[in-house]
């Protein structure tokens, strides 16, 4: 499992030997070993659930390996906690940030450091110096809630850089960035590499890994299945190593196919954010036609959640005619009434929103399908019918579960997602609104879900996909619109729009002058 | 050898139903030491407390008499608790129900007829429900915490009852004692076991438990309640109306507590007095949790808590122990139940210490 280094002049920065970690019912890592050389950008590649996060948590001292050794600069070390990891020179940028929104950048940085020192002015200066020298400009006095997601990530990175790390671990850092922000991040990482800092880069985005990384270790099912030089591989060959099967791609729809009548419209939707520090929805207009897939791109936290809630009826609009389904004004109706009219939705969060974790799949089929599919008899539940429906979803969408009576919460994220998406699709909705249809789903399952969406559109249903995965939107959509700071751009034909154009809209550069200003000043 | 605590991937159903028994066992063990510290023979005391009520027909019937209101109230509470709606004021709703039912009995004091008892029951149901409507309104309209409002209204209800029995509803021939006239036979629940006080209310309580079970497990309302309690966002996603469920749960609990109150005054007590209930409304909270918020479990836990009342009385009479013993045992039971609930979500494993350098 040696990544191809022919000359070993010095000890590797980090070496893992036989790392094994088990949780109840699952072995997350089994005998994992690889090396990261000084100044190397090393990719840790694998599907969701392959054990990548578990592995790096052991390197950073959050979890303790059941067996195996961690060797740092040729010396075996015990890393009982993150404090020790930082003392060794290991920095980590998590996928989910740990920032206090109501505090300033400076305060957040100080809170995350082991020894921030008493002199805050000096620390502020260091933050400014470090952030500028790495091309990550940050104003230490700004409050975090006014920052974009990309800027928030900079705080986490700068916090690590202030401690002069010798190994930087980055867990899926680009999943929340615009294409332009990704480019900037890569510049920073290359600069770090040039200075001799090693980087362990976790991702499942193959093109990024090809572009950035010197070596890759591929995990599948908790084991190292391959080590390769990403520059010598194709994205397709790495995908096959990652999923261990022939990679299926989605049958792309014929462009310019005739679309049907308008099924869903939003006319001037304004809505205050539900969460503190969220962005309000601003004057959103949208017309969704039967037979088309409309994609809404955007960086997380730009109003997607509220937009979905407003369409689903979970949040009500100020007036009824703001939202129409087949011409009927439903802005003041709840989700049940809208579902009756043919609108089904898949929320972003599956556990606790799209499904009840403690309930069986039969009951979770009941949850959203009981009215449309007629699972009620005089106010009483017809469990037989919902069980059959759940069984059909399981079969058609290849949900890996012992049976229909298994609790939804015990399914893996990808399997639960397949169940939820399948549950909505098999209700034959006239309008389907899906948030992050394949988020956290393995490549094979993602293809199944995407194909099902394409097939559903082919039957004449109108489909709206809200996603942060631009590749997915470009694959699926007929038209793409971009949501940024609560405002929605016009929808553009997916066949002709460029990634750069979408990226700029995602960053709010080409929004209306007012929005661009709001973004800049915020 | 070391003990390791691990989170379970899925809650353990086996533990869920096993923990009440663990809690009872732990209470008996702790009770042993409590009696020892109080200076009485622990074995004899435990016998008097837990077993002597079963020895006589009277003891057993009284157990059922006391279990009836506990079961009735706990069923309503359990439905609400399943939906995360925390009615703590069943004692107050019981009191108002008793006042309403009692008022009907007194209004028809010089009449006889089979219609009087159903009318009282209706008045009790309505009184309890309307009293619970106050926290429901405050909760749904102003988002006021129902725990506080329902609890505080309990004291209002108790004082309201006092005002009535010291004033307008006082027995005119009662030598100025603060109590109403004795209810007539038409306003008294029929006895279902001769030579005891066991009344029809016990059968009604069992029927309510079965109905509650069907409602919770088979009806769409029960499904909505379970969803709301388990995953509020999923309930919203499904289009279940939180406001309507809040009203439903609070009013249903209030109605059942009100009915229990009416049954108390028209059964064992037979008149309105300043103290109708020895805290049934509060004890029913323990009953609901000990019964795992499951209607059929509540029948069992209701009998058990009734036993703690009986045992407390017997301990007072036979052992000369203070009445507070009842409260101590009820408290220990709830304490041990909540503590052993840990095992539902976690498991304890014996692990060998890690061997160096595998």
What does it look like?
- The complex is a heterodimer of chains A (522) and B (358).
- Chain A has helices at 52-59, 82-88, 105-111, 120-133, 149-161, 179-194, 206-212, 235-243, 304-312, 335-340, 361-369, 383-396, 413-425, 443-458, 470-476, 499-506, 513-521; strands spanning 14-23, 26-36, 41-45, 67-72, 75-77, 90-93, 167-171, 198-203, 215-220, 223-228, 262-271, 281-289, 293-297, 323-325, 328-329, 343-346, 376-377, 380-381, 431-435, 462-466, 479-484, 487-488, 492-493.
- Chain A is an alpha/beta fold.
- In chain A, strands 13, 16, 19, 20, 21, 22 and 23 form a seven-stranded mixed beta sheet that branches. Chain A has a six-stranded mixed beta sheet with strand order 6-7-8-3-9-10, with helices on both faces.
- In chain A, a hairpin with a 2-residue loop joins β17 (376-377) and β18.
- In chain A, α11 (361-369) crosses α12 (383-396) and α13 (413-425) runs parallel beside α14 (443-458).
- Chain B has 358 residues and is mainly α.
- Chain B has a single domain (46-323), classed as ABC transporter involved in vitamin B12 uptake, BtuC (Orthogonal Bundle).
- Chain B is built from 14 helices and two strands; from the N terminus they run βααααααααααααααβ.
- In chain B, α4 (90-107) runs antiparallel to α5 (116-142), α7 (201-218) crosses α8 (220-230) and α8 crosses α9.
- Chain B is globular.
- The model of chain B has no long low-confidence stretch (mean pLDDT 91).
- The A-B interface holds A 18, 24-25, 66-68, 312-314, 334-337, 339, 345, 347, 349, 352-359, 363, 366-368, 370, 376, 379-381, 407, 409-410 and B 6-11, 218-221, 223, 226-227, 230-231, 233-234, 236-239, 241, 347, 354, 358.
List the helices and strands and how they pair.
The complex is a heterodimer of chains A (522) and B (358).
Chain A: E1 14-23, E2 26-36, E3 41-45, H1 52-59, E4 67-72, E5 75-77, H2 82-88, E6 90-93, H3 105-111, H4 120-133, H5 149-161, E7 167-171, H6 179-194, E8 198-203, H7 206-212, E9 215-220, E10 223-228, H8 235-243, E11 262-271, E12 281-289, E13 293-297, H9 304-312, E14 323-325, E15 328-329, H10 335-340, E16 343-346, H11 361-369, E17 376-377, E18 380-381, H12 383-396, H13 413-425, E19 431-435, H14 443-458, E20 462-466, H15 470-476, E21 479-484, E22 487-488, E23 492-493, H16 499-506, H17 513-521
Parallel strand pairs in A: 3-8, 3-9, 6-7, 7-8, 13-20, 13-21, 16-19, 19-20
Antiparallel strand pairs in A: 1-2, 1-4, 4-5, 9-10, 11-12, 11-14, 14-15, 17-18, 21-22, 21-23
Chain B: E1 2-7, H1 13-37, H2 42-51, H3 57-82, H4 90-107, H5 116-142, H6 146-166, H7 201-218, H8 220-230, H9 232-238, H10 242-269, H11 280-290, H12 295-319, H13 324-340, H14 342-345, E2 346-351
Antiparallel strand pairs in B: 1-2
Helix pairs in contact in B: 1-2, 1-13, 2-12, 3-7, 3-8, 3-10, 3-11, 3-12, 4-5, 4-6, 4-10, 4-11, 5-6, 5-10, 7-8, 7-12, 8-9, 11-12, 11-13, 12-13
